[in-house]
């Protein structure tokens, strides 16, 4: 009998750790990396390429206004915790008790006033910055949790981002260099920090804060900002200055997360490292099951990146690869469902979230 007991405990020690936490809901904020349909609740605009086939081809079999061939990180998180896929917050008649998604394509961390003040207001086409998304969330509160929201949100998961990428795009596409754009990093990260503090004030306790992506490795930027100078590229073939801009943001964001964690010891703020995980995928695509890390699955032109800005995914002349799960990049700007699935695992269990979402 003693031998059996010892054997039992020996085997128990080799079992994977069990994770006990559950969430009653997930509330998400961000841009096209997270939007599950807010831009399309009143119909799919014919002018919006992201609202045309073959978007959604892998999982949904139809366009859902997700900027991928299928599910996003927020979808996989919801599935993991046994929650329904997040309804867009703008979808009237929805029940948001188990989650809502305030993210919207084109969103920024800063407000339109900020972009007008620095001369690139014309490059912002969607007025759904983080501050506005939090207002949308506040409008839903009474229907979610009545007058006892702090207790309810204590057991909810909040995902704040990725957001900030479009703030930098406004400057880059407005003609500024990555180095010039970097001067705005402090203000943009401060807007993210302000948003996190507002949510903490509303009762958020478990908060995931994703970094921005290594845009210098994405077909859009590699095509638009091609250089004849080999020194502009790193050993992976990514544009150094664009990745330096993203790294600058992420470094400052990490400091902000650390400061907020110290300021609010009752919270659990998780720094989710999109950047490092995607760099790992670019460096070793085969390890993740990809045949290509820099070529867009859905695009036109073939070649190294399969990206043509005049024939983007969803436009005439573009087409999708037969097996998106073999690609990191879906449309040259956003990632495939297969990539988002792996990223979710890296956030849930580590090593790409600090601390990981799951804890013993």
Q: Could you explain the architecture of this structure?
A:
The protein is of the alpha/beta class and 360 residues long. It has a single domain (23-275, 337-354), classed as Rossmann fold (3-Layer(aba) Sandwich). Helix content is 36%, strand content 8%. The protein has 12 helices and 8 strands. β1, α2 and β2 (99-101) form a beta-alpha-beta unit. α8 (185-202) runs parallel beside α10 (240-263). It is globular. The chain starts with a helix and ends in a 6-residue tail after the last strand. Mean pLDDT is 93; it is low at 2-18.
* Structure class: alpha/beta
CATH architecture: 3-Layer(aba) Sandwich
Outline the low-pLDDT stretches: 2-18
Number of helices: 12
Element string (H = helix, E = strand): HEHEHHHEHHHEHHEHEEHE
Alpha carbon gap, first and last residue: 30 Å
- Beta-strand percentage? 5-15%
CATH C-level class is: Alpha Beta
Strand order of the largest sheet: 2-1-3-4-5-8
Calculate Rg over CA atoms: 21 Å
Largest sheet: 6 strands, mixed
| Overall body shape | globular
Number of strands: 8
GO molecular function: hydrolase activity, acting on ester bonds
Organism: Rhynchospora breviuscula
Pfam families: Lipase_GDSL
InterPro entries: GDSL, SGNH_hydro_sf, SGNH_plant_lipase-like
In short:
With 360 residues, the chain is of the alpha/beta class. The chain contains twelve helices and eight strands. Helix content is 36%, strand content 8%.
